[in-house]
């Protein structure tokens, strides 16, 4: 079974709005990572947040991690049509092995 | 940034054919490479973990004799789908990582269609 569960499964917003995606997991982790996948392509790494970190920023992306609740969120601010993609969280427990969540399909309408 | 090359990007072949997919890390030595399978509109499912010079570690339910993995060097891993059948049709993606607690770098995937 998947370690991570993400919500929402699908999100549709207008350009300029913010998009928030959530991820929950079940076991202790070394880190949690967020990836983006355009249709029919491989995954692109966005942010890695370690278990002792609570928040990380990269450009328009903000990731939070709450290890007590075993949850993480990805916020994309001022969204653009080019942000349309599937977003996955993944948890690393040991040996670089990742377990992926089910993903959120984000659609940003021009 | 780090680049992982996966080849071929698309394969269409007849049932019973064996198909080899290559995954290369172009600008770093990968201690570990991973092979995933992805069905339409679903998440990635880890198939196996590949370490250079040692046998791959397969996830539960993945047939070792069907999905043969060779990790000949720190920059190359191959996945061979032996005697492929229509149910093996899927999107296969590889990734490479320098060390633990670092991001994985993904290839662009291989769309395998078995007729």
Any descriptors?
heterodimer; A: 110 residues; 0% helix; B: 115 residues; mainly beta
Give an overview of the whole structure.
- The complex is a heterodimer of chains A (110) and B (115).
- Chain A has 110 residues and is mainly beta.
- Chain A has no helices and eleven strands.
- Chain A has strands at 5-7, 10-14, 19-24, 31-37, 43-50, 55-58, 61-66, 71-76, 85-92, 98-100, 104-109.
- In chain A, a hairpin with a 5-residue loop joins strand 9 and strand 10.
- Chain A is globular, with a radius of gyration of 13 Å.
- Chain B is an all-beta fold and 115 residues long.
- Chain B contains no helices and eleven strands.
- Chain B is globular, with a radius of gyration of 13 Å.
- The A-B interface holds A 2, 30-31, 33, 35, 40-45, 48, 50, 88, 92, 94-103, 105 and B 4, 6, 31-32, 34, 41-44, 46, 49, 91, 93, 95, 97, 99-109, 111.
What spatial form of chain B do the alpha-carbon principal axes imply?
A: globular
| Rg of chain A (CA only) | 13 Å
How far apart lie the N and C ends of chain A?
36 Å
* Largest interface (C-beta under 8 Å): A-B, 26 and 27 residues
| Mean model confidence by pLDDT of chain A | 93
Number of beta strands of chain A: 11
N-C termini distance of chain B: 37 Å
Strand-pairing-aware structural class of chain B = mainly beta
Helix content of chain B: under 10%
Element-by-element helix/strand order of chain B: EEEEEEEEEEE
Look at the helices and sheets of chain A and give the structural class: mainly beta
Give the assembly state of these chains: heterodimer
